[in-house]
Write a structure and sequence with these properties.
Helices cover 8% and strands 17% of the residues. The chain has 311 residues and is mostly beta strands. The strands form 2 sheets. Strands 1, 3, 6, 7 and 9 form a 5-stranded antiparallel beta sheet that branches. A 4-stranded antiparallel beta sheet has the order 2-8-4-5, with no helix packed on it. It is rod-shaped, with a radius of gyration of 59 Å.
Amino acid sequence: MPITSGQPNPIGVAAASGSIAAGAVAAGAVVSGAILAGALADGADVTQGITTDAKSTATDGTSVSIMQVLKEISYMEQNPASRAVTGTFYQGTQPVSLASAQIASGAYATGSIGDGADVTQGAKADAKNTATDSTAITIMQVLKQISYMEQNPASRAVTGTFYQVTQPISEAAPGTRAVTNAGSFAVQVDGTSAFSVDTSVALEASSVSKASAGRLYAITGRIDSTAGTDVYYLLLMDASTLPGDGAVTDLMLPLKINHTTGEDSFFDVDLTGNDVNAGIAAGTGIVWCISTTEFTKTIAGAVASASVLYV
């Protein structure tokens, strides 16, 4: 009697291991659903259970077990071979070429590209290049050329109609202009007039700085520390030679100098200014001396040195 799905085994016979000969069960003898869940114990089908079959690379008609194929797949995953990557796709680890306008405006946020990420604009060892034609050069070469020209500027012609402080201005055929005393005028000292200087070359009691009419602008000097302790007077006189002791014509009030032996005593009279009225006019000449009296001349010894500025 045939046994169908869902019916109990009326015979209750258990088959011993190896008692069913090869081919004893004909093809199609076991219908779908005839073997219930749990009827086959784990490992009952040795082909899919625990087996010691080694991996096999066979892909042709060679007879191999499922375990051999599975072990081969496991081995290849543990030891992956190099594989060619083909097709149309984009990968983060491969260079990507983009067609024109493929990236939308604003796609890169501010700061998304780190400094130096683009080597063309980052650290680049390219030297400057003067090419302005179709020669292929990098941005860095152009920038270095511009930097070089700014550091070593070439002469440039200045053209056009304009006025500049640093360029001479010419005026063609100026008309007649009236010169009046109206307004304010800055009076300039004649730039061609150079000061003359009379400077001592040793200690002295007096000096004739100028033996003719002139103008006194300054005198500076010192009474030497070797001079005796006393009150001295610097006399500036309107004379062409050194007058004798007594009354003299002074250009200005005598300068009083309290001196102590062992110390230098300095004097400085500055009469310079920024107009033609600066200084003191001398009708006869300019002479200085060191006197021990104030309003009359009593010449001291050679105790002083000085520099006189005059014209």
